[in-house]
Amino acid sequence: MSIKLRLTAMSFLQFFVWGTWLITIGNYWFGTKHWTGAEFGAIFSTLGISAIFMPALTGILADKFINAEKLYGTLHIISGIALFFLPQMNDATSFYWVMFAAMLCYMPTIALSNSVAYTILKNNNCDVIKVFPPIRVWGTIGFIAAMWLTNLSGNKASANMFYIAAFSAFVLGIYSFTLPKCTPQKLIAENASLAEKLGLNAFKLFGTYKMALFFLFAMLLGAALQLTNMYGDVFLSEFKNNPIYTDSIMVKYSTIIMSISQISETLFILAIPFFLKRFGIKNVMLISMLAWVLRFGLFAFGNPSEGLWMIILSCIVYGMAFDFFNISGSLFIETTTDSTIRSSAQGLFTTMVNGFGAFFGGLVSGIVIDKFFTQNGVRDWHQIWLSFAAYALVIAIFFAIMFKHKHNPEIVAAIHH
């Protein structure tokens, strides 16, 4: 089997494990277990906490002490064990701690999978820039395939989603040990401080007003990203409580409809060079924020019959909302930071979006929905999505006013090389 094919299988399984439960866990939580929204928010905050410090720690281990592919495989096997035991948890607190253990092992594998792929491709004299993107696209396809499997097998509200995830994690973990060796090679200076080893020296960027502002908005938008992961499928599924919509296609195949978001994500990546060249980094980030307003607003007014087009359009808009900020934000870091801390700065950007953003987004949204939008266990989705749309709109307005960045078309020209 060729190296590219082997890495494609790794990428597919990496996100297949996640896709089996990430979008559908809300159905299990609210529909099967009938636990609270605040507790559900805490579950999603485990992703954020794990993304804040685990990638840096595992990065040091892979750089200095352990073969990256072996560390990667070991983490997947341990996370698989935790995922396997999740259905045995009969109270929200126990579930939280087992999920936390699973995420401590899973979240760093996202970055590690990239490191493993880059190392193996370089060792085989492949052009990483040319070869890696098609491999990574199969990760998104894996995520979509897992969503479809969970939905079509009738497990979008059952504990079986965790067993599917656990089995996939075991397969990937064992498979990882068959990959070519990725020996520790990126040397960290012996006299480097702990802050440098952890990539914390990038935090000095907070001393610059513009960068501090950028990272603040990255965190606030990272919180918005979690909201549809957490509540999108539950929202569509709960239309079954209305007799008019009980047997609608949208209720039956809610996870498949939500997967349009991921399909859109792969397509909007292709449009980014055009938008960046035409509008510049700041405006593309602003378009992303307005796309989040549209994403939430369309959900607020959509339904399974005459409003189905709004739900589908919301899922299409997600691709723009997700890609435009993540990729233009990454380019902003690439073009405005010193080369000595660029990798750390990129890591900090990811930490603000997927770490602190996910943590606060999960925790706060769960509490707010419980307190203001839930009565007798019934959630007022119309008001929930409108409040989320208002949140995204406020961020967009403040970003447009406060964040100053001059468009440089030459940056986009450089992207193509």
Structure notes:
- With 417 residues, the protein is an all-alpha fold.
- The chain has 2 domains: 181 residues, Growth Hormone, Chain: A; 215 residues, Up-down Bundle (Growth Hormone, Chain: A), CATH 1.20.1250.
- 76% of the residues lie in helices and 1% in strands.
- It has 16 helices and 2 strands.
- Strands 1-2 form a two-stranded antiparallel sheet.
- Strand 1 and strand 2 form a beta hairpin.
- Helix 9 packs antiparallel against helix 15.
- It starts with a helix and ends with a helix.
Termini separation comes to 30 Å
Strand content: under 5%
At the third CATH level, what is the topology name of the largest domain? Answer: Growth Hormone, Chain: A
What's the oligomerization state? single chain
Number of separate strands: 2
Could you give a quick summary of the protein structure above?
The protein contains 16 helices and 2 strands.
Helices, strands, pairings?
Blueprint: H1 3-19, H2 25-33, H3 37-64, H4 68-85, H5 92-123, H6 128-152, H7 160-176, H8 194-197, H9 209-237, H10 249-252, H11 254-258, H12 260-301, H13 308-336, H14 342-372, E1 374-375, E2 378-379, H15 381-402, H16 409-415
Antiparallel strand pairs: 1-2
